[in-house]
Design a protein that fits this description.
Protein name: Nuclear protein 1
Shape: rod-shaped
Structural class: mainly alpha
Family: Belongs to the NUPR family.
Strand content: under 5%
Radius of gyration: 26 Å
Organism: Tachysurus vachellii (Darkbarbel catfish)
Distance between the termini: 85 Å
Number of strands: 0
């Protein structure tokens, strides 16, 4: 009795050609890549920012300034 892996290997040998194997190697089936190659995923990954959370800090300061202006205009 053949196991699932052996059946899968037999199926691949019978039905896959060189192009199918190329596509399997080129496009791995994980959710993070969304059809991109490993090289593209590596190029477009988040980079470490030595300054920390710059975007979050600037957004927080900008929002606080907008709130301050809003309260000044409503109270006058």
């Amino acid at each position: 009795m053949a196991t699932d892996i052996e059946r899968l290997v037999l199926f691949e040998e019978a039905h896959y050609d060189q192009y199918d194997y190329y596509n399997l190697d080129e496009y791995p089936c994980h959710a993070g890549g969304k059809g991109r190659t490993k090289k593209e995923i590596g190029l477009n990954t988040n980079r470490h920012c030595p300054a920390g959370h710059e975007r979050k800090i600037t957004e927080k300061l900008r929002n606080s300034e907008v709130k301050r202006r809003r309260t000044k205009s409503c109270s006058s």
